[in-house]
Specification:
The structure is a single chain. About 25% of the residues lie in helices and about 25% in strands. By secondary structure, it is an alpha/beta fold. Strands 3-2-1-4-5-7-6 form a seven-stranded mixed β-sheet, sandwiched between helices. A hairpin with a 2-residue loop joins β6 and β7 (about 155-160). The protein is globular, with a radius of gyration of 17 Å.
Length: about 180
């Protein structure tokens, strides 16, 4: 299973369709709808879309407790953490740790303020402040292993982290049903 956080208009989602199942979460329902509209009805019905934050019964935006815990092999967030302050980044990374299975990997972009152009974005109020060393230390403090940190341009940075353990699965085929919480 794969989780995409903040799919926006689904630009990256089409590259995650091999995941089975694919979950997407966002705090804005219009972004979930926009992402789902990119796919035909058959595939759209297979994607598991969830709202976070105020749209999800007043839960915190970083609360992923509505998702299966300890189950995801991959969590992806592009152009999401670039706008989170440290406290919110830490809370979201903790929630992601809880949903990742042992050996699961998370990859996300961030605004590396060690680079002058990224620091300028903060001064303009466009992105949040996050130096690479602080992010790496935060990830380690939460128990993640650092796989790699990369940049392809001056303002495009990402980090790949892993929950300790060995990634395993017993899945033999595609899911044939859906488990739902029913409040009685």
């Amino acid at each position: 299973p794969t989780l995409e956080i903040g799919p926006g208009d689904g630009i990256w989602t089409e590259h995650l369709v091999a995941a089975d199942p694919l979950y997407i979460v966002d705090r804005q329902p219009e972004f979930l709808e926009s992402t789902l509209s990119k796919f035909n009805g058959v595939y759209r019905n297979r994607v598991r879309a969830y709202l976070t934050g105020l749209h999800a019964n007043n839960k915190e935006e970083h609360d992923l407790s509505m998702l299966p815990q300890n189950q995801f092999g991959f969590v992806f967030a592009w152009n999401v953490f670039n706008y989170f302050p440290l406290a919110e980044t830490t809370a979201m990374l903790k929630s992601c740790y809880d949903v990742l299975r042992p050996g699961g990997v998370m990859m996300f972009s961030y605004n590396n303020c060690d680079v002058p152009q990224c620091a300028e974005y903060v001064e303009q109020g466009f992105r949040s402040w996050m130096p690479k060393d602080l992010l790496v230390e935060t990830c380690k403090d939460l128990g993640y292993e650092i796989i790699d940190t990369r940049a392809i341009e001056e303002t495009v940075h990402w980090i790949e982290i892993r929950k300790p353990g060995e990634l395993k699965t017993v899945k033999a085929h595609q899911v044939l049903g859906k488990i739902s919480n029913v409040n009685t």
